[in-house]
């Protein structure tokens, strides 16, 4: 994606800010994944069409630019598929993906939930018989269900199954820059204790786990790399109750550069869940365990170190980085089609009025210009963060644009506007006086 220069103006005066996006390249165990690259590109307009395109044999790039709603519908995904969401528009409600004996699949920039659906996984991958599968990249997605209210009961925790689960003979997977929130059981690796020893080789990096009760991930057997994730657990009034990275059934996980907050167990092995002891290698970048969260309690293993090199951020910086860039609508459609290519990194420049609070009554015009094609959103929020207006939500070409915000019907006070271009965003204040 070309570097885009934004000019965002209100009245007179200027303050310039510059920022650099992270590199969103595909790295880790799933780095060989190409998805549907080179295949036919299609934008689906109905759930029936989405179902057909996902199940069709052959390379395909499938673009989703709208909401599809069902009641626990699980769509079969065949090999060599890239599934891309546009901006903040791709939302699959009560719809999941099943990758059965499938290989080489990319899923990016899609919001998914099983609310309104059933107890199935949101995304589940597995094999049958002697088949093998893998090479998956799940990136910049959002997954959620319902806040896991306490006390814990079987009905509550089993109302939905996993968000992303991998079973049997699948391997070489990267899960990156995703936002997982409000759920009991997030990501389970392996289908049965001591009975699924396949080495799945999965990388989890720069994901945001918020209000998740457990399994981030729960990893049966094999090896995995878990780095630079932000773990923001359930903060019960009495004590933290979330369980974090669970190494099980002789697994050896390389866990580094993560930030843990509000966890009863952060990184651990538990004999009650896994009779066969499992291990963790913490010899990489230091993890942060914010009190009263306990540190890693699993025994060390030195037998596994990831066979690739990645840039690992300092754990202290992880919350800010992940909260800013994980989840949907952080990439333009041009970026997400690039697959393995690194993002160019946007530099944003805002020119703002120095005479804050810029009172206006009752409307104002917000102008910006783009030097390159990008997906742009411009939204207005009130002082407590509730969205009150959406002025732009579309892919725009290079050029100058203006949008008028009419605040009739709103009370006087402070409001915030957020302009996002591709993966960059800035938020500023406005004062409404009547």
Radius of gyration: 22 Å
User: Which structural class best describes the helix and strand composition?
Assistant: mainly beta
Determine the mean pLDDT.
87
- Strands, count: 33
Strand content: 35-45%
Please state the overall shape, judged from the principal axes of the Cα atoms.
globular
Helical run tally? 4
Q: Please give the share of residues in helix.
A: under 10%
Biggest sheet, in brief? 11 strands, parallel
Low-confidence stretches: 1-19, 340-357
* Distance separating the two termini: 42 Å
Instruction: Give the strand line-up of the largest sheet.
Output: 1-2-4-6-9-12-15-18-21-24-26
Summarize the model shown.
6% of the residues lie in helices and 42% in strands. It is mainly beta and 434 residues long.
Describe the structure.
This protein has helices spanning 47-55, 154-157, 318-325, 333-336, and strands at residues 40-44, 60-64, 67-76, 81-85, 91-100, 103-108, 111-113, 123-126, 133-139, 142-144, 164-166, 170-176, 179-185, 188-189, 202-205, 208-214, 218-220, 223-227, 230-232, 242-248, 252-256, 259-261, 263-268, 279-281, 288-289, 299-300, 359-360, 363-370, 374-381, 387-396, 399-406, 413-421, 424-432. By secondary structure, the chain is mainly β. Strands 1-2-4-6-9-12-15-18-21-24-26 form an eleven-stranded parallel beta sheet, covered by helices on one side. Strands 3, 5, 7, 8, 10, 11, 13, 16, 19, 22 and 25 form an eleven-stranded parallel beta sheet that branches.
């Amino acid at each position: 994606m070309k570097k885009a220069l934004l000019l965002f103006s209100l009245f007179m005066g200027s303050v310039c800010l510059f920022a650099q996006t992270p590199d969103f390249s595909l790295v880790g165990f799933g780095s060989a994944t190409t998805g549907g690259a080179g295949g036919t590109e299609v934008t689906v307009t109905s759930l029936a069409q989405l179902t057909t395109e996902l199940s069709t044999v052959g390379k395909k790039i499938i673009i989703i630019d709208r909401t599809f709603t069902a009641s626990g519908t699980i769509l079969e995904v065949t090999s060599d598929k890239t599934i891309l969401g546009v901006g903040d528009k791709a939302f699959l409600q009560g719809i999941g993906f099943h990758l059965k004996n499938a290989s080489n699949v990319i899923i990016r920039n899609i919001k998914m939930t099983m609310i309104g659906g059933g107890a199935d996984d949101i995304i589940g991958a597995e094999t049958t018989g002697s088949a093998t599968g893998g090479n998956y990249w799940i990136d910049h997605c959002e997954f959620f269900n319902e806040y896991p209210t306490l006390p814990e009961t079987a009905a509550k925790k089993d109302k939905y199954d996993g968000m992303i689960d991998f079973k049997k003979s699948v391997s070489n997977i990267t899960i990156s820059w995703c936002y997982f929130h409000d759920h009991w059981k997030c990501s389970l690796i392996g289908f049965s204790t001591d009975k699924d020893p396949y080495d799945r080789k999965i990388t989890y990096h720069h994901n945001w786990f918020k209000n998740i009760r457990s399994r981030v991930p729960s990893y049966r057997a094999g090896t995995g790399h878990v780095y630079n994730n932000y773990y923001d657990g359930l903060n019960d009034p009495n004590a933290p109750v979330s369980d974090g990275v669970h190494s099980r059934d002789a697994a050896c996980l390389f866990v580094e550069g993560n930030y843990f907050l509000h966890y009863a167990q952060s990184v651990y092995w538990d004999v009650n869940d896994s009779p066969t002891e499992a291990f963790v290698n913490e010899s990489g970048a230091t993890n942060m365990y914010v009190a009263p969260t306990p540190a890693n309690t699993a025994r060390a293993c030195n037998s596994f170190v990831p066979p690739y090199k990645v840039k690992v951020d300092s754990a202290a910086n992880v919350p800010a980085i992940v909260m800013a860039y994980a989840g949907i609508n952080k990439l333009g459609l041009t970026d997400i089609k690039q697959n393995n290519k690194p993002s160019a990194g946007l530099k944003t420049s805002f020119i703002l009025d120095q005479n804050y609070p810029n009172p206006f009554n009752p409307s104002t015009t917000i102008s910006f210009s783009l030097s390159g094609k990008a997906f742009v959103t411009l939204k207005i929020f009130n002082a407590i963060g509730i969205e009150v207006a959406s002025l732009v939500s579309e892919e725009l070409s290079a050029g100058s644009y203006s949008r008028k915000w009419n605040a009739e019907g709103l009370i006087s006070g402070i409001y915030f506007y957020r302009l996002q271009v591709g993966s960059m965003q800035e938020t500023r204040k406005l004062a409404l006086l009547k």
